[in-house]
Design a protein that fits this description.
- The complex is a heterodimer of chains A (about 140) and B (about 200).
- Chain A is built from 7 helices and no strands.
- Chain A has about 140 residues and is mainly α.
- In chain A, helix 4 runs antiparallel to helix 5.
- In chain B, strand 1 and strand 2 form a beta hairpin.
- The two termini of chain B are about 20 Å apart.
- The chains are: A mainly alpha (about 140), B mainly alpha (about 200).
- At the A-B interface, helix 1 of A face loops of B.
Chain lengths: ~140, ~200
């Protein structure tokens, strides 16, 4: 077994390192299970988006739950048409999670995602533009 | 960047303990405890859980400050109040209308209680946290707010601004409170605005 640190392989150490991935994984699985039981395409099945209810506009998250449901049913096209941002987000989270587990075996405190400041600004800007565009007639294909 | 992963609210990592080395420049702690990562964190940012815990604690303290005068005031105000109930002819719902007997002194006490709570929060989360780096909740959790560039405390003005931005941005978008989870320096947006980081208190 090759490891970075000086500490020898230890079940106890690995157990503690993998506790957080276990919790996050459980939350993800619970969410997926809930989606299988309850179809978000039924209006109001998961409540209303407060932003949408108040303003009538789409927030960046609108259609995200439906997109997750569609992805669970391997309908990528429907997921993208619901909320393309959510599709990218879910894919990113999945990859980050799968990479997090081996990273934790190497370093006990490894974080799942670390966004440098520039990337943060990029993501926020993209999110802002996405929100504007999906509320215009030209960007109707980005609306849920 | 290596830093402590959030464990659970109230957890004090070795870096957060108040133990001081006997002499300055003394050799670093010989061997890390069993199972500990041998590499010490360079900047011990406070865990997200500790910040959530401190925030919950601050809310509870503020609630405790408000509830006594507010409760007494409300009880006094409406103790002898009269009301009439009826049926709304349009909607068919039951209605209730105050018809008098409200004690104005009670109302004043209740309003003063709310003002006291607002004042307390500004002091605790703005001024105290700015000048001493810690709200009461952060003190209990062993974390403090410092400037990113110098590592010193913010001061009352920037502290108050930080509190205001947290309230504003947090209400505008909940993601603000999640942002430290993936931020490089574990900053929320209100940290970025005033240039602060939350660290484990030395």
């Amino acid at each position: 077994m090759t490891r970075h640190g000086l500490a020898p392989p230890s079940l106890k150490r690995d157990g503690r390192a993998l506790r957080a991935p276990a919790v996050v994984g459980s939350i993800g699985l619970a969410g997926a299970g809930l989606l299988l039981l309850r179809d978000p395409h039924t209006p109001g099945s998961y409540g209303l988006c407060p932003f949408n209810a108040l303003t009538g506009l789409y927030c960046p998250g609108c259609g995200g739950t439906r997109a997750a449901y569609d992805l669970l049913h391997f309908d990528v096209a429907a997921a993208i048409s619901s909320n393309v941002f959510a599709v990218v987000l879910i894919a990113t989270l999945l990859v980050a999670y799968l990479r997090w587990i081996p990273a934790r075996m190497r370093a006990e405190n490894a974080r799942m995602i670390v966004l440098p400041a520039r990337v943060s600004m990029l993501v926020l800007t993209a999110l802002f533009v996405f929100t504007i565009v999906r509320n215009t007639p030209a960007g109707a294909w980005l609306a849920p | 960047m290596t830093d402590q992963y959030p464990r659970y609210p109230g957890d004090r990592s070795p870096a957060a303990s108040s133990q001081q080395p006997a002499t300055y420049g003394a050799p670093a702690p010989a061997a890390p405890a069993y199972g500990q990562s041998p590499s010490a964190p360079t900047v011990p940012f406070a865990s997200w859980w500790a910040r959530v815990g401190a925030s919950v604690l601050d809310s509870l303290i503020a609630f405790a400050v408000v509830i006594v005068p507010f409760g007494i005031g409300m009880a006094l105000a409406f103790k002898d109040a009269q009301s009439t109930t009826g049926i709304d002819p349009v909607t068919g719902f039951q209605t209730a209308e105050l018809t008098g007997g409200v004690n104005p002194i009670g109302v004043v006490i209740a309003v003063l209680g709310v003002l006291l709570g607002i004042g307390f929060t500004i002091w605790n989360l703005g001024i105290r946290q700015g000048k001493r780096g810690q709200s009461l909740g952060k003190k209990a959790l062993g974390i403090s707010v410092v400037r990113t560039d110098t590592g010193s405390y913010l001061g009352a003005g920037a502290g108050a601004l930080r509190w205001l931005m947290a309230a504003l941005l947090g209400n505008l978008c909940f993601i603000n409170f999640l942002w430290p989870l993936w931020d490089e320096k574990k900053q929320a947006w209100h940290d970025k605005v005033v240039g602060s980081v939350v660290i484990k208190a030395p």
